[in-house]
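Exam revision sheet. Question 4 asks you to relate a sequence to its structure. Input first:
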Amino acid sequence: MMKAAQGVRLLLVDDEPHILQFLELGLLNEGFEVRTAPDGIIAISVAAEFKPHVAILDVMMPGMDGFELCHYLRSEETELAVIMLTAKDEVDDRVKGLTIGADDYMVKPFSFDELLARIQARLRNQFPGLLGEVRCGPFRMDSRRKEIRFKEEVLELSPTEYELLQYLVINHGLVLSKPMILDKVWGYDFGGEENIVEVYIRSLREKLGDKEHRIIRTLRGAGYRVDL
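Answer key, structure tokens:
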């Protein structure tokens, strides 16, 4: 897993105290600066003073729910990265969250490592200067140069290949479905065929010399996973 940068500020908002405590302790241990809030109203005050880089918002909260809070925070700070948490895996909720400005969406229960990977993915995409060059196994990624090195060799990548490989590597160890990849790399409103993912995966494997698919693995019926 990539090492989190010091000075990265995270805001956690959830009305379940045990979830707040668990996430706060884990993220503090990773080196983040963390503030918490038990509801949307308090979160607004905390965000105004704390100026977080990433806000992790529970959807189902009394009073102001996560959607309302996301909309408000987005109106105040457009560069803020927002990850929504929900106990329901409802497509309508996910679409609503993305439409009002959320950058990512996770369904409870989830693993801490997955949340950490998604936080770091948002930082890579929206605040690359905070992380600088990031090492993941044999990969070195520098988003300021839009450059990825594999075993110290610079890979010649198209812009889409760069975005795809970065997404796969940042989320190494996680199974990423074709719809997830299309959403993150091509955009959730992409109207093309899912098979485009296979085409780009094939190209990346060729450039990595991954003939036996040991780096980018295919999990039939599930998606792809990078193993480092």
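Marking note for examiners. The longest strand covers residues 81-86.
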